[in-house]
Each structure stands twice: as C-alpha cells, then as structure tokens.
Amino acid sequence: MRRPSYSYQMDRVRNSTATTAARRYILDIYLTPAQLEAFYAGSVDQVSALDRTGRRLQFPLASLRPHVTHAGVRGTFELGADAQHRLLYLRRC
Q: What is the full per-residue pLDDT of the chain (93 aa) written as tens digits?
C-alpha cells in the first residue's frame, strides 16, 4: 500500500482548518478588584457574560489575567471560539 505524499497530507490539514471558522463575540466586561479576589482565592474559575447580541458565554477567568489592572478588568473584548465552542482567543478591542 502506498502512503500519501507529505504535500497531500498538508493540503488535507489546511483544508480541514480552513472550514473551521472562528466564531467571534463582542463582550463588555467590568469586574471589580473585589470580584477578582474570588478568583485568586480559588472559589471562582469561570466568567459568565452576555455578548452584545444577548448570547450568554462562559469562559475561564484565567483568560482575563493579562488584562487585570489595579481597577479590575474593564473594557470591550473580542472572544473567538472554534466550532466545538472552545476558546481560541480573548483580546481587547
């Protein structure tokens, strides 16, 4: 039995990832320092938020860590998820 060439395998990978488009959600997040203390104490590990179209999203609070300031977390964020609803990215808009 002949094995497929490397380029054929790469084309299959490229085509499978091209059909898996990221879903984008826009979130306005406001978390106070007191609310973030629960995360650092270990009692909270998920955030539940509404996007601008009214969909409720749940994602790990740890993904907001790069955006934490002394005032908490404030701002508009773009969340990307794959077709299986796994978090791909969370970035400030």
A: 455 444 444 344 444 444 456 899 999 999 999 999 988 898 889 999 999 999 999 999 999 999 999 999 999 999 999 999 999 999 999
Radius of gyration of the chain (CA): 18
- This prediction's pTM: 0.73
Q: Are strands 87-92 and 73-81 parallel, antiparallel or unpaired?
A: antiparallel
If you search the block for the tokens 């909270």, which residue do you land on? 44
The token pair at 87 is 């978090």
d(CA 28, CA 23): 17
- The single residue listed with the structure tokens 């907001």 is 64
Domains of the chain listed by start with CATH number: 21-92 (2.40.50)
Token representation of residue 36: 């973030």
